[in-house]
Amino acid sequence: MSTVQGARARARIEVTAAIKDEARKQLATEGATKLSLRAVARELGMVSSALYRYFPSRDDLLTALIIDAYDAVGEAAEQALAKQRKAASPAARWTAVCRAVRAWALAHPHEFTLIYGSSVPGYTAPQETVGPAARVGLVLVSIARDAHHGKGIAPPPLAVPLRAEAERMAAELAPDLPPAVVVALVAAWAQLFGLILFEVFGQFRRVVEDRDPFFTHAAEQLARSVGLVLPA
């Protein structure tokens, strides 16, 4: 790459970052439904036609923000798992990951709301968001997998009417895990983000005051529901 091409590439990266930073400010003040390319361009001192060279539409910009948010919370989960000692129990690793996801959400409430809150009218997330969106779930699955292939996991009971669906889910999501565990993992994944959404949206106000130990307890209960045995 020539010096000129390298300078252009760096400039594009910097402008793209500035556009996304300004768009995140709009998310915080106006919400995703009112995100406007023209407003972003105006705040950056750009003409709209110049901004369209980076993001041809509002949906393209939304997609970039959504992928960034999924990648950020996914990285937080992955780093939390990596920091755990190998001797740590699967349940302890699970709880550490859950706490890291919550910490990221509380530090970035508007980005968390973008990916886990209400859908944006008129916007349909493209296929390219699926991989980033799966990162947290894959971390949780990896913890269950390590337990299953290590000291073992205690599969929860599985209702007979759910057996066929459980086998289908296991075949698609984690063929090496018992179907009952896969069902519990999906439920726990949904409950984890439900707990965090309640806190981010203020639903725990006047209900749960000391939220750190409450969340840790809830995360440990989710670990139990999956079949991870807590240390004595």
TrEMBL record:
<dbReference type="InterPro" id="IPR050109">
    <property type="entry name" value="HTH-type_TetR-like_transc_reg"/>
</dbReference>
<dbReference type="InterPro" id="IPR025996">
    <property type="entry name" value="MT1864/Rv1816-like_C"/>
</dbReference>
<dbReference type="InterPro" id="IPR036271">
    <property type="entry name" value="Tet_transcr_reg_TetR-rel_C_sf"/>
</dbReference>
<dbReference type="Pfam" id="PF00440">
    <property type="entry name" value="TetR_N"/>
</dbReference>
<dbReference type="Pfam" id="PF13305">
    <property type="entry name" value="TetR_C_33"/>
</dbReference>
<protein>
    <submittedName>
        <fullName>TetR family transcriptional regulator</fullName>
    </submittedName>
</protein>
<feature type="DNA-binding region" description="H-T-H motif">
    <location>
        <begin position="36"/>
        <end position="55"/>
    </location>
</feature>
<keyword id="KW-0472">Membrane</keyword>
<keyword id="KW-0812">Transmembrane</keyword>
<dbReference type="InterPro" id="IPR001647">
    <property type="entry name" value="HTH_TetR"/>
</dbReference>
<keyword id="KW-0238">DNA-binding</keyword>
<keyword id="KW-0805">Transcription regulation</keyword>
<keyword id="KW-0804">Transcription</keyword>
<keyword id="KW-1133">Transmembrane helix</keyword>
<feature type="domain" description="HTH tetR-type">
    <location>
        <begin position="13"/>
        <end position="73"/>
    </location>
</feature>
<dbReference type="InterPro" id="IPR009057">
    <property type="entry name" value="Homeodomain-like_sf"/>
</dbReference>
<feature type="transmembrane region" description="Helical">
    <location>
        <begin position="177"/>
        <end position="201"/>
    </location>
</feature>
